[in-house]
């Protein structure tokens, strides 16, 4: 991406369906014994990957032109999610629980290395074992089996895990008896998955709290109306931070403001004037420079780790010094080095970044390392002096639908070039 910085964002932008909702919901469709239909599906690389995995498992998929997908999982033909797909997306692990519940057997490749630190799946495995599955790791695959079916259990998660909660919740839907998940993730995406599964006939209560109770049913065979995926709160927040940094004035529509309370509070602390309706958020910086903010990432309803990199970019050009503490992942400060190459003054010690705001950033060729780090560099590019060239933006396409079109709609000068680094050098 090549971005010419310095233009305040103005106008209106639509938020897409949430990546972290649609991925578990697609995996959840494996549980359905009737065709299901989804809408508000974002056009993202991760969605394509999940669809490819489902296709390999025997799900037939039809995509329409209005952001909808129909899935028919009546006749599954395989229980193996292969390495070549799983290695490109860690969220592939989400098929483990539903596949095991539906087929009595599942083999999912271990996801492997990850740019945002070690991300084990021990809690997923332990949860399935508690439901009576036998789980082994062989030839790089997690191989789980439960030939006589799964049995409800009381499971306490040592750490709050989003996909862990989702995986075990999906497995428990078809287990015999009652499962209680304690210290469960409260993220809106967990709630969205539960709502979707309940529409198909599951009996899940308490999603959105830290205790989820699932009463097992024999099949998910209710014919449900088309299910609309939740709006993406991280995409929403990314646009709002972009507007704040560029001293802009934007309205983000088709979103859910109540999912963003903690971020909106921080943006107000940073000096933004914010107004919300049922489905929109209006942010106006009234031409002022942002003020530095202190924050700590936390599970929902705290500030999501997925918006930390973008808020680090905000602090980089803010007035004053802000401290950011990352409590969810180790090593999620890869973007800091790149920001410093653009003139930011940020030092990282352990899980804390101290950002001393500078008046401006200067364009430089930078490299994206993961999805949210890429978003952070786009934001930095929007305020930097000159033309910022961001390489490896395939990370961005995993989680942001049409990002350059949406930013252009808000007035940004941004374009995608086949080999931008080579062009700039020449
Ligand atoms: N953890 C364990 N063992 C486990 C599972 C997790 O120790 O078995 C630890 C992790 O290492 C981490 C913490 O628990 O330190 C929380 O990780 P979690 O399991 O909640 O992360 P995740 O489910 O793999 C989801 C999102 C991430 C988001 C995190 C945290 C999806 C598909 N992914 O990941 O999204 O950062 O929750 O909110 O829902 C992104 O969208 O860019 C992204 C990385």
Give me the secondary-structure category.
alpha/beta
Kindly report the average pLDDT value. Answer: 95
Q: How many distinct beta strands?
A: 24
Which ranges are low-confidence, i.e. pLDDT below 50, for 5 or more consecutive residues?
422-426
- β-sheet strand percentage: 15-25%
Helix content: 25-40%
Question: What is the oligomer described by this structure?
Answer: single chain
Strand order of the largest sheet: 22-23-1-24
**Backbone shape:** elongated
Identify the bound ligands. Answer: uridine-diphosphate-2(N-acetylglucosaminyl) butyric acid
Radius of gyration: 22 Å
Distance between the termini: 16 Å
Query: Please, how many helices?
Result: 15
User: Mind describing the biggest β-sheet?
Assistant: 4 strands, mixed
Walk me through the structure.
It is a single chain. The chain is of the alpha/beta class and 426 residues long. The chain has 15 helices and 24 strands. The protein has helices at 19-28, 45-57, 83-86, 96-103, 122-130, 162-173, 188-199, 233-245, 261-269, 308-316, 334-341, 371-383, 394-399, 403-409, 420-425; strands spanning 2-4, 10-14, 36-39, 60-63, 69-72, 80-81, 105-109, 134-138, 141-145, 154-156, 178-182, 203-205, 211-215, 227-228, 249-253, 273-276, 280-284, 295-296, 321-325, 345-349, 352-356, 365-367, 387-391, 413-415. The strands form 6 sheets. It has a 4-stranded mixed β-sheet. Strands 2-15-17-16 form a 4-stranded mixed β-sheet. A 4-stranded mixed β-sheet has the order 4-5-3-14, covered by helices on one side. The longest helix is centred in the first third of the chain and has 13 residues, at 45-57. 51% of the residues are buried. Residues 422-426 have low confidence and may be disordered. The chain binds uridine-diphosphate-2(N-acetylglucosaminyl) butyric acid (EPU). Uridine-diphosphate-2(N-acetylglucosaminyl) butyric acid is lined by residues 19-20, 23, 90-91, 119-124, 159, 161-164, 189, 304-306, 328-329, 371-372, 399. Uridine-diphosphate-2(N-acetylglucosaminyl) butyric acid binds at residues 19-20, 23, 90-91, 119-124, 159, 161-164, 189, 304-306, 328-329, 371-372, 399.
């Amino acid at each position: 991406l090549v971005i010419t910085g310095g233009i305040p964002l103005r106008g209106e932008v639509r938020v897409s369906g949430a990546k972290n909702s649609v991925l578990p919901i697609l995996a959840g469709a494996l549980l359905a014994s009737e065709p299901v239909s989804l809408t508000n599906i974002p056009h993202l690389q991760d969605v394509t990957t999940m669809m490819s995995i489902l296709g390999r498992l025997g799900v037939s998929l039809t995509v329409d032109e209005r952001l909808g997908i129909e899935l028919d999982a009546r006749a599954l033909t395989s229980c193996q999610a292969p390495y070549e797909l799983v290695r490109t997306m860690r969220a592939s692990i989400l098929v483990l629980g539903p596949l095991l519940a539906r087929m009595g057997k599942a083999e999912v490749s271990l996801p492997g290395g990850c740019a945002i630190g070690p991300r084990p799946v021990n809690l997923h495995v332990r949860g399935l074992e508690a439901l009576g599955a036998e789980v082994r790791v062989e030839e790089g695959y997690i191989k789980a089996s439960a030939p006589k079916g799964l049995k409800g259990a009381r499971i306490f998660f040592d750490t709050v895990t989003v996909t862990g909660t989702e995986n075990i919740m999906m497995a428990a839907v078809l287990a015999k008896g009652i499962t209680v998940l304690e210290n469960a993730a409260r993220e809106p995406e967990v709630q969205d998955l539960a709502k979707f599964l309940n529409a198909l006939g599951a009996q899940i209560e308490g999603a959105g709290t830290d205790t989820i109770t699932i009463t097992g049913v024999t099949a998910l065979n209710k014919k449900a109306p088309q299910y609309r995926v939740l709006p993406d709160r991280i995409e929403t927040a990314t646009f709002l931070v972009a507007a704040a940094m560029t001293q802009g004035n934007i309205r983000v529509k088709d979103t859910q403001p109540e999912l963003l309370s903690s971020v909106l509070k921080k943006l107000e602390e940073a000096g933004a004037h914010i107004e919300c309706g049922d489905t929109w958020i209006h942010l106006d910086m009234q031409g002022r420079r942002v003020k530095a903010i202190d924050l700590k990432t936390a599970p929902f309803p705290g500030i999501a780790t997925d918006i930390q990199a973008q808020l680090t970019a905000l602090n980089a050009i803010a007035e004053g010094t802000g401290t950011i503490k990352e409590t969810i992942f180790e090593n999620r400060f890869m973007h800091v080095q790149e920001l410093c190459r653009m003139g930011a003054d940020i030092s990282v010690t352990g899980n804390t970044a101290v950002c001393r705001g500078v008046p401006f950033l200067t364009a430089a060729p930078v490299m994206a390392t993961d999805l949210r780090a890429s978003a952070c560099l786009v934001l930095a590019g929007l305020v930097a002096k000159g033309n910022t060239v961001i390489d490896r933006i395939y990370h961005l396409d995993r989680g942001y639908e049409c990002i350059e079109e949406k930013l252009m709609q808000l007035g940004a000068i941004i374009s995608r070039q086949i080999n931008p680094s080579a062009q700039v050098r020449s």
